[in-house]
Amino acid sequence: MINYNPREWFTFIFRIHKADTVKKLFPMFCAIAIYSAAIAWLELEVFKLSEKDHIKNITSMHGLLGFVISLLLVFRTNTAYDRWWEGRRQWGALVNNSRNLAMKIQAMLPAGHPAAAFFRTMIPNYAYALKDHLRGEHHPSKLEGMSAEDLEKMGTGIHIPNYIATLILKKANELYRQQVISGEQLITLNTQLEAFADICGACERIKNTPIPFSYSVFLKKFIFFYVMTLPMGYVFGLGYLVIPMVVFIFYVLASLELIAEEIEDPFGKDANDLPTEMISANIRKHVQEIL
Amino acid sequence: MINYNPREWFTFIFRIHKADTVKKLFPMFCAIAIYSAAIAWLELEVFKLSEKDHIKNITSMHGLLGFVISLLLVFRTNTAYDRWWEGRRQWGALVNNSRNLAMKIQAMLPAGHPAAAFFRTMIPNYAYALKDHLRGEHHPSKLEGMSAEDLEKMGTGIHIPNYIATLILKKANELYRQQVISGEQLITLNTQLEAFADICGACERIKNTPIPFSYSVFLKKFIFFYVMTLPMGYVFGLGYLVIPMVVFIFYVLASLELIAEEIEDPFGKDANDLPTEMISANIRKHVQEIL
Amino acid sequence: MINYNPREWFTFIFRIHKADTVKKLFPMFCAIAIYSAAIAWLELEVFKLSEKDHIKNITSMHGLLGFVISLLLVFRTNTAYDRWWEGRRQWGALVNNSRNLAMKIQAMLPAGHPAAAFFRTMIPNYAYALKDHLRGEHHPSKLEGMSAEDLEKMGTGIHIPNYIATLILKKANELYRQQVISGEQLITLNTQLEAFADICGACERIKNTPIPFSYSVFLKKFIFFYVMTLPMGYVFGLGYLVIPMVVFIFYVLASLELIAEEIEDPFGKDANDLPTEMISANIRKHVQEIL
Amino acid sequence: MINYNPREWFTFIFRIHKADTVKKLFPMFCAIAIYSAAIAWLELEVFKLSEKDHIKNITSMHGLLGFVISLLLVFRTNTAYDRWWEGRRQWGALVNNSRNLAMKIQAMLPAGHPAAAFFRTMIPNYAYALKDHLRGEHHPSKLEGMSAEDLEKMGTGIHIPNYIATLILKKANELYRQQVISGEQLITLNTQLEAFADICGACERIKNTPIPFSYSVFLKKFIFFYVMTLPMGYVFGLGYLVIPMVVFIFYVLASLELIAEEIEDPFGKDANDLPTEMISANIRKHVQEIL
Amino acid sequence: MINYNPREWFTFIFRIHKADTVKKLFPMFCAIAIYSAAIAWLELEVFKLSEKDHIKNITSMHGLLGFVISLLLVFRTNTAYDRWWEGRRQWGALVNNSRNLAMKIQAMLPAGHPAAAFFRTMIPNYAYALKDHLRGEHHPSKLEGMSAEDLEKMGTGIHIPNYIATLILKKANELYRQQVISGEQLITLNTQLEAFADICGACERIKNTPIPFSYSVFLKKFIFFYVMTLPMGYVFGLGYLVIPMVVFIFYVLASLELIAEEIEDPFGKDANDLPTEMISANIRKHVQEIL
Questions:
Q1: DSSP string covering B189-208, please?
Q2: Minimal CA separation from D8 to chain E, in Å
Q3: Residue A288: which pLDDT band, with cuts at 50, 70 and 90?
Q4: Which of C57, C200, C211 lies closest to D237 in CB terms?
Q5: Cα angle, residue A150 at apex, residues A146 and A153 outer, rounded to 5°
Q6: What family, per the record (chains A, B, C, D, E) (predicted)?
Q7: Relative to the CA of C210, which of A17, D38, D132, E55 has its CA 20 to 30 Å away?
Q8: CB–CB of C62 and B64 under 8 A?
Q9: Averaged confidence pLDDT in chain E
Q10: What is the model's pLDDT at position D285?
C-alpha cells in the first residue's frame, strides 16, 4: 500500500506514479489516438461525409448509453472497493483477535508459566503464515519458535494457517486439561480461538472469487464498443479534436475498470494492496509487548 | 464458475464464450434488426414521413426514461449480485465452520479416539449433501463412511443435510454424556454445531426467493416497450443506421437482465455459478489434513 | 408469492397477470389519456399556441427534474425491497432456528422421552401462530397438540406467538430443573430459545413501520405534478402522440411506487408477499422428520 | 408518527398535512416567486436582453450540475433514512429484549416468587425512561413501582436509563447469589441484561450526531445558488412561466433537505418521528401478559 | 465537531465558517477565475475563434463525462461518510461497553469491595488513552489513579490502550481466582472485556487506511482536467460569464473531494471530527455515577 497525504493535490495531478493508470494505459492511448485519427481522416477527407450524413447522429446512442455505462462502472467500483475494504476489516479483526488472545492469556496464566512463550510466538506466526498463504508463498524463516517437526510437516504442502491454528487450539485445550485454566476461562477464550479460521476463510473467499465472469466480459465488451464508435459521430462536430476527447473518455472508463481489477484482490504486492506485511509485523510487536 | 484472468482484455472482447450473452441473445438480435429495418423502411420509404413529423420527437421520451431504465437495471444488477455474493459468503462460512469444528475436535479428543474418524467423514459429507440438495440431486456415492441404515433412510426423500447435521449433533452430545468432552467444551463447539443448519437455510432462502414477481414483470415490459419504440423516432436522424444502434442498446439492456437472472440463483451448474463442487472437495481435503 | 420462471420473457411481456400494475393502473391510464388529449386539443386547436410560445420550454424543467424523480423512485424501490428481503431473512431465520432447536432436542433427550412430542408440535405451532399474528388472524385449528387451557387463554386476545414462546422456554427450563438436560446444554439451547421473540419483533417492526409519511406524500405529489405538466410542453413537438407518451411515462413512475407499496409489507396475502403459509408447512414437515 | 394508508393517493396529493413541506416552505415559495419575477422583469423589460445574450446559456451549467445536486440530495435522503430506520430497529430490539427477558424470568423463577413483580414493572419502566431521556424530559409518574429512594435519586439529574438498567442487573445477580437461578441460567440472561445499555447508547448516538457540519452547509449553499441562478438563464425560453418552474424546482430540492432534517433525529415529537410512546405502552402490555 | 442547528438556513448560506470549503478553496477560485478569463480572452479576442470552430463542441464531452464524475464524487462521499459513521459507531460502542461493564461490576461486587475503585478509574482511562492514541499524543495527566509504575511503563512508547485493557482483564481474572466473582459471572463479563481491543483496532483501521491511492489520484486528475477544459468550449455560449460558471462548478466538485478528505479520518481535531474529548468525559461522568 502506498502511504500518501491525500491533501497534496498538485503532486497527484502532475506526477505519474508507477501504479498510475495513465502509465499502464499509455500504449492503449496511442492505439486509440491513431484509430480516432484514422476514422476522422476517412470520414472527413476520404469519404467527405457532410454534416447531414446519418452517421452524425450516432452520438444520440452515446448519450442514451452514457448513464448505463457510468452506473455500471460505479457498480464495478463499489463491488471492488467493498472487497478491498472487507479484506482490510478481516486483517483488522486479526489484529484485534491477536491482541485480545494475548491479553487474555496474560491475564489467565500464572506468572512465569511456560505456555506464555508459546502464544508469544504462535499468535504472530499465524499472521505471517496467513499473509504468505494468501500470496501462494511459504517463508519458514518468518515463523519463530517452530519445532523442527512442525517445520518439516509444513513443508509438505499442507494448509499452513490451519496447521498453526490447530496448534494454538490444542495448546489451549491442553492447558484446560491440565487445569491451568478453568472451563469458564476456556469459554471466554473461544471467540478468539475460532476467529483464526474464520478470518483465513474470509480472505481466501475474497481472493478466489472475482466478480462473476459474465459481468467482467460484458463490461469490457461494452466499454470497447462504446469507445470504438465514439469518434464516428463526434468527428463532425469536433474535427480532429475528436482524438484527445476519445482518448480522455477512454482514460476515464478504462481507469475505473483497471483500478477495480487491481483492488478486488487486495492481498498481493500491488501498489494498492493492503499492507499485510506491516500489519503482521505490528501484531508481533504488540503481542510481544503484552505477553 | 469460470476461472479467468480479469486482465486479459482482448480475448474477452473478441471471443464469444459459451455463457456470453451475445450468444444467448443472438436470435433476438436478428429479430430486432428485422423489426427495426421494417420500421425504418415503412417510415422512410412507404409513408415517406418527413423530418417534421411528430413521431420524430418521440425520442424525447427515451431521453427522459433513460435514467429510470438505467437505474432500475443497476438496482437489478445489485440485488442479483448481492444474492450471488451472499451465497458465496455462506459457502465460505461452511468452509470456516468445517475447519473450526475439525480443529476443535482434534484438540479435544484424546489421541486415537474413534470419534475422530466419524467427524473426518461426516463434516465433508455435509458439504457434499448440501451441494446436491441445492441442485435437487442425491449422490450417495459422494458420501463417505455412511452406514447402510443411514443410506437407506436418506433414500426416502428426507432432507439429507438436516439428517447429517443431526448425526453430528448427536455424536457431540454423546461424547459429552460419555464425558469424553466436558460441558464447557460442548459450549465452545456450539457455534460450529448450529452453523450447519443456518448455512443450509440461508442457501435455500437464496435459491427459493427470486426478485419479487412484480419487479421482474415490470422490468421486462419496460425494456420491451422501450426498445420497440426506439427505432420509431431515431430513424429520422439515423436512417438505416438505426438498426445496429437499436440492436446494441438492446444488447446492453437485455444482457444486464439476463446476467442478473443467471446469477441470482448461484448454486446450479451455470457458467457463472459458485464452484460448490470444488469447495466441497477442498473441505474434504482440509478436514482430512487436520483430523 | 408467485412462483415463476424468470426466463420466460414472452409470457411476461404480453400476459396481464392479476398483480400486474398495468391492470391496477388501467383506470388511471384512461384518465391521464383524456387529460393529455384535452391539453393537446386546448393548446393546439383552441388557443392555437405556436411553437414559439414560452410554454413549449417547460420541457426543460422535466429534463432537470428527471434525475431527481428517477433517483427518488429508485430510493423508494430500494427501501421497499430491503424490507421485503429482511422479512424473508427473518422467516429464513425461523426455519433455521426451528430446525436447529429440533436437532438439538433430538440429540439431548434420552430416546423416548415424552418432551420430544412437545417440541415436535410446539416448534411448528410457533411458525403458524406468527404467520396468523402478522395477518391479524387467529386459526386455532392450525395449532397442533395445544391443551384446552392453552387454547382458551389464546382466545382472550393475548399475544399468541409470545405465549407459545413462553411455553417452549418454560419446558426447556423445566427439563433443566429435572436434570434431563444439563446447564451447559441449556446454554447451547439459548440462541434458539431467544430467537423466537427476536424474529417476531423484527416482523412486527417491518409490518408496522412504512416509509416515513413525509416521503410518501412528497413522492406522490411530485409524481402527480410532474406527469400533469408533461403534456403542456411536449404537445408542440409530439402533437397527439403526447397521449401515449404521457401514459407510458406515468405507467413507469406509478408502477414503481405501486410495487414498492405492495412489497414493503410482505406478510399479507398479496401476489408478491412472502409464502409464509408454505414456509410454516415446511417447518412442520422438517421438524417432524427430525424429532 | 402518522399512521396512514399508503394507497390513498388522492388525499395525499391534494390535502396539505401539517407536516407537509408545502406548508413549511410556503413563505419561501412567495419570496422565490417575487425574486424570479424581478429577475424576469429586469432581464426582459428593463435591460431588454435579447435571446442572443450570453446569460441565456447559463442554463448549460444547471444541466451539468443537475446530476450532482440530485445525487447529493439522494445521498442526504439515504443517510437520514438510515438513521431513522436504525432508530426504529433499536426500539424494535428493545421490544424483543423486553419480551425475551420477561419470558426467561417467567420460565426460571419458581411460581409466586416476589422477583417477578420487580421485573414486571422495571422492564417497561426502562422503555419509558429511555423515551423521556431521548427527549430531554423526566416523567416520574410514568414509572411504576419505584421506591421513594429511587425516585429521589433519579431527580438529581443522573442518567435515568442507566440507573434502571443497574437495578435490573443487580436484581439478576442477587437472584443468582441467592441460588434462585443457577449460573448457567444467569449466562442465558446475559444477552438481554446487557442489551439495555447498548440500545440506549445507540439511540443517543443517533440523536447527538447529525450529518457532518460541512455537508450540511455545503448542501444548503449549493441549493441556494443553484435555485437563485435558475431564473437568469431560463427566463429567455420561458418568459414569466419561469416563476412557477423555479418555485417547483425549489420545492423539490428544499423538500428533500427539509424532510431529511426532520427525519434524522427520530426520537422527538415531530409528525414523522418514531412512535416511542406507543412502543413503550406495548412493552408494558406484553410484559404484563407474560409475567 | 461543530454543534449546529440544521434548520438555520440563512446563517448557513451567508456565513463563511472557518471549516467552510469556500474559505479553503478561495485561492484556487482566484487562480481558476484568472485561467478562465485568459482562455476566454485568447479564444474570443486574440484568436477570434468563431462559433463554428470545432472547439465549441468540446462541451459534448463534458456532458458525457458529467455522469461519471458526479457518480464518482458520490461514491467518494459515501465511502468517506461510512468511515466517519463507523468511527462514530465504534465510539458509541465504547460508551455502551463502558457503561455495561461498570453496571455489571457494580451488580457483582459485594458492597464496598476495593476493586470498584479500580474499575471506576480504569474504564474512563481507557477512553482517554484511546482518544490520545488515535491523535498520536499522550497525556498522562488525563489518566486518573494510575500507579507510578504504570505511568513509567506507559512513557516508554508502548501501546497505551492495550496496556490499560490488559490491566482490566487481569483484574477481572484476579477477582475470579479470588472467588469474588464466579466462573459464570466471568463469562458474562467477557463481551465487555474483549470489546476494548476490538474498538481500538477498528479505530486504528479507519485512521490508517485512506481510500486506495489509485482512486485518490484518479479522482484528482479527473476533476483537474474536467475543470481545465470547461472554459474552452463554453466560452462561445457564455462569453466572460464562463468565469463565474467555471468557478462555481469547481467549487462544487472540489468541495466534495475536500470534505471527503477531511471526514475520512474522524479522530483528529478538525471542525468535522468526532467529539472524542466530550465522549470520554461523558464516559467518566456516567461510570462514576454508576460505580
A1: HHHHHHHHHHHHHHHHHHHH
A2: 30
A3: very high
A4: C57
A5: 145
A6: Belongs to the anion channel-forming bestrophin (TC 1.A.46) family.
A7: D132
A8: yes
A9: 89
A10: 94
Yes or no: say if B223 and B257 are a contact pair by the CB < 8 Å rule. Answer: yes
Q: How many helices (H) and strands (E) does chain D have?
A: 10, 0
ipTM above 0.90? yes
Q: What single letter denotes the amino acid at residue C179?
A: Q
Q: Which of B198, A93, B234, E27 is nearest to C101 (CA)?
A: B198
User: How far off is chain B from C204, nearest CA to CA, in Å?
Assistant: 20
Q: Chain B: nearest CA to C36, how far in angstroms?
A: 15
The answer to whether A119 touches A291, Cβ cutoff 8 Å, is: yes
Rounded CA-CA distance D153/D160 in Å is: 9
Q: How far is D126 from chain E (nearest CA, A)?
A: 15
* CA pair distance B1, C132, nearest whole angstrom: 42
Residue D34 clears pLDDT 90, i.e. is over it? yes
| Residue pairs between chains D and E whose CB atoms are closer than 8 Å | 173
Domain parsing of chain E, residue ranges: 96-209+281-290
* Three-state DSSP string of C176-218: HHCCCCCHHHHHHHHHHHHHHHHHHHHHHHHHHCCCCHHHHHH
Query: Given a cut of 80, is residue E15 above it in pLDDT?
Result: no
Q: Which has more pLDDT, E7 or C79? A: C79
**Chain B closest-CA separation from residue C148 CA (Å):** 33
pLDDT above 80 (res C236): yes
Query: What gap in Å lies between CA E228 and CA E219, rounded to an integer?
Result: 14
Chain C partners within 8 Å of B156 (Cβ): none
Judged by phi (left if over 0) then psi (alpha if -120 to 50, else beta), residue D128 lies in alpha
Query: Which of A165, A211, A217 is facing B12, going by the closest CB pair?
Result: A217
Of the candidates C17, C92, C290, which has its C-beta nearest B202's C-beta?
A: C92
Kindly state the average pLDDT of the residues D93-99: 95
Rounded to whole angstroms, the Cα distance separating A231 from A42 reads: 11
Which chains border E (3 or more CB–CB pairs < 8 Å)?
A: A, D
Using the beta-carbon criterion (under 8 Å), do B4 and A225 form an inter-chain contact? no
Integer Cα distance of A171 and A177 in angstroms: 10
Grouping H, G, I as helix, E, B as strand and the rest as coil, residue A124 is helix
Contact between A169 and B248 using a beta-carbon 8 Å cutoff: no
* Chain B neighbors of C92, CB-CB under 8 A: 201-202, 204-205
Separate counts of helices (H) and strands (E) for chain C: 10, 0
Distance CA D225, CA E245 (A): 11
Chain E residue at shortest CA distance from A252: E222
DSSP B110: P
Lowest mean pLDDT, pick from B235-249, C172-186, C187-201, E11-25: E11-25
Report CB contact under 8 Å: D107, C221: no
Residue E207's pLDDT band, with cuts at 50, 70 and 90, is very high
Residue percentage of chain B with pLDDT more than 90: 58
Handedness of CA A269, A270, A274, A278 (dihedral sign): positive
Name the DSSP class of C46: I
Residue percentage of chain C with pLDDT more than 70: 95
Q: What percent helix, strand, coil does chain C show, rounded to 5? A: 80, 0, 20
pLDDT digits (tens, 9 = 90+) for B211-233: 888 888 889 889 999 999 999 98
Which chain C residues have a beta carbon less than 8 Å from that of B224?
9, 13
Dist CA A260 CA B142 (whole Å): 39
E137: three-class secondary structure by DSSP? coil
Instruction: Give chain C positions within 8 Å (CB) of B153.
Output: none
Q: To the nearest whole number, what is the mean pLDDT of chain C?
A: 89
Select from D158, D202, D224 the Cβ nearest to the Cβ of E13.
D224
Would you call A181 helix, strand, or coil by DSSP?
A: coil
Dist. CA A268–CA C152, nearest whole Å: 66
